[in-house]
Specification:
The complex is a heterodimer. By secondary structure, chain A is mostly beta strands. Chain A is built from no helices and eleven strands. Chain A is about 0% helix and about 50% strand. By secondary structure, chain B is mainly β. Chain B has one domain: Immunoglobulins (Immunoglobulin-like, Sandwich), CATH 2.60.40. Chain B contains no helices and eleven strands. In chain B, strands 2, 4, 5, 9, 10 and 11 form a six-stranded mixed β-sheet that branches. A five-stranded antiparallel β-sheet of chain B has the order 1-3-8-7-6, with no helix packed on it. In chain B, strand 4 and strand 5 form a beta hairpin. The chains are: A mainly beta, B mainly beta.
């Protein structure tokens, strides 16, 4: 158990819908990262927050947004969903930016 | 722009032998490197890391080697065990300006009993 909690574990939704993925980082970790993994491919960096502030953005679509709340949990919002958005979405957290990050179990999103 | 590359998508090794996984990077600002192991349908698990001020770091059966001049790192697992069968990702970060972890595409390691 990494200490990072992601909910829900599985999500099936229709095209055009909007979903919210939630992440609770390890206690004390200020950095939260979101990654997308499609079809057994690599981990694509989406976005990073540090203590509520956006720190870095990867190839995150405009239809996607995220935020980190004062209690440090983070949410990733995906809207106008397309079939190609089906993927595993991972959240990770770390004490120090860019150092050992610990991953949650992921949310498997299926868009039908 | 793939800044971290794992050129071998898969590797098969006999149980008990050494497994060597390779990773190359292009961004000279990277100064911290990590290896993660991932089983299907699970999140990546941190294995071992190395700072650019070192060229070797060991933790039990796992050793990471860093060759800065070649921008290359490798993970050695010895002896290899069946439970080591997984996908291994290398990752890199920079202290300033690129603190996120940039991952390679992964190498699927299969340990043959």
């Amino acid at each position: 158990d990494s200490g990072v909690t992601q909910t829900p574990k599985h999500l099936i939704t229709a095209t055009g819908q909007r979903v919210t993925l939630r992440c609770s980082p390890r206690s004390g970790d200020l950095s939260v990262y979101w990654y997308q993994q499609s079809l057994d491919q690599g981990l694509q960096f989406l976005i990073q927050y540090y203590n509520g502030e956006e720190r870095a953005k990867g190839n995150i679509l405009e239809r996607f947004s995220a935020q980190q709340f004062p209690d440090l949990h983070s949410e990733l919002n995906l809207s106008s969903l397309e079939l190609g958005d089906s993927a595993l979405y991972f959240c990770a957290s770390s004490v120090v930016e860019g150092r050992e990050a610990f991953f949650g179990q992921g949310t498997r999103l299926t868009v039908v | 722009d793939q800044q971290v590359k794992q050129n071998s998508p898969s590797l098969s090794v006999q149980e008990g032998r050494i497994s060597i996984l390779n990773c190359d990077y292009t961004n000279s600002m990277f100064d911290y490197f990590l290896w993660y192991k991932k089983y299907p349908a699970e999140g990546p698990t941190f294995l071992i890391s190395i700072s650019s001020i070192k060229d070797k770091n060991e933790d039990g059966r796992f050793t990471v080697f860093l060759n800065k001049s070649a921008k290359h790192l490798s993970l050695h697992i010895v002896p290899s065990q069946p439970g080591d069968s997984a996908v291994y990702f290398c990752a890199a970060s920079a202290e300033f300006g690129n603190e996120k972890l940039t991952f390679g595409t992964g190498t699927r390691l299969t340990i043959i009993p």
